[in-house]
Each structure stands twice: as structure tokens, then as C-alpha cells.
Amino acid sequence: MMTESGRPAASGTTMPADDTRETARVLEIAAVQIETTLRESDMAIEEMIGAITAMVAGIKGMTQQLDQDEHRGVTCPAGPYLREACQQAEQNMQKAVVAFQFYDRLTQRISHVRENLESLVKVIRSPSPEHPKLWEQLQQRARSVYSLEQERQMYNALISGLSAADVIETDTGGGQDIKSDIELF
Predict the structure, then answer these.
(1) Which of 74, 96, 117, 171 measures 20 to 30 Å from 9, CA to CA?
(2) DSSP assignment of 87-108, as one string?
(3) How confident is the model at residue 88 (pLDDT cuts 50, 70, 90)?
(4) Do residues 2 and 8 make contact, with C-beta atoms less than 8 angstroms apart?
(5) pLDDT value of residue 72
(6) Where are the alpha helices (DSSP H) in the chain?
(7) What percentage of the chain exceeds 90 in pLDDT?
């Protein structure tokens, strides 16, 4: 029996060598793309964190100046407006902190995917007799890197036989408010 590409069909669970190499190459490319994307996004986030830190310092300075002027008996006609604007800016900064923490969770998950892709490439490129041991190591490593409860639940559901579509549909954390999972610092 021949495949669409004209190569003989694989017997059992063995893939033709060309398919194995190409599968490994595609997985490796995906892992590199993920790593590159994570690095680029980390640089952008660091810039935003620097900008927000500078804004917080500016707001704190304005509030302290208003307090000092008030203590000395100097009244600023715009003082009440400035205080309100500072309080609003502080609330917006808290929202930004929550968004950054969500980003941190996202990058952790993406990093775990990248690590698992790299491990999968190692399994695919290894000689067949080593596969059972390498698959077990891959599963153990996958279990160990999932630091988020939601990831562990998804992993266990998939390993127990649920389809990816079923796991996504019944995602235990999907309906929760993001803010409830994130602690402010």
C-alpha cells in the first residue's frame, strides 16, 4: 500500500524515516518560534513595566507635594482635582499589575508547551527501542512542569482519554474571573 506521496505506507505504528525527520523539524521550528516570541514579548513587557514604574513614582511625587503644601497651609486650587486624578491613576496601575500577572501565567504556559515540543523532538529522533523509556520521561517531565492547577487538570484529563475539544469545552478555569486567580503584590 502506498501513501499519497508515493512512499510505502508505514506498517504498525512506525513512521517512514522521511516523515519522522520532517515531523521533528516542524516541531523544532514551532519550539523556536515560541521561544523567539517569548523573548520579544518579554522585552516589550519590561519596557511597559518601566513606564508604569515611572508613572507610579510621578503620581507618588505629586501626592507627596500636595500633602506637603497642605501641611504648610498652602492651598492649591487644583489640589482636589489632582488628588482625584492621582487616585484614579493608582487604580489604573493596579489593573495594569493584574494584566502583567496574567501575562506571566500566559508565558509560563507557552514555555511549558515549548519545553514539551523540544522533548517530543528528542523522542522522535531517538532510535525506536528507546521510545518507551523516553515517552515515560516526557510524561513525567510534563507533569512536573505544570505549576498551575488548571494545567495539571488539563494534562490529567487528556492523559485519561478526553479529547482536546472536550478538555477545552469543560475547562475548569475558563469561566472564572481572572482577577480571582491573581494576587496583587
Answers:
(1) 117
(2) HHHHHHHHHHHHHHHHHHHHHH
(3) very high
(4) yes
(5) 92
(6) 17-71, 79-125, 131-145, 149-159, 164-169
(7) 18
Please state the φ and ψ torsions of residue 8, each to the nearest 5 degrees: -65, 145
Kindly report, residue by residue over 50-62, the tens digit of the pLDDT.
Answer: 899 899 999 999 9
> Are the C-beta atoms of residues 134 and 122 closer than 8 Å to each other?
yes
pTM: 0.62
List, as one string, the DSSP characters of 42-73. Answer: HHHHHHHHHHHHHHHHHHHHHHHHHHHHHHTT
Cα distances from 17 to residues 3, 4, 136, in angstroms, run 14, 16, 22
161: left (phi over 0), alpha (psi -120 to 50) or beta: left
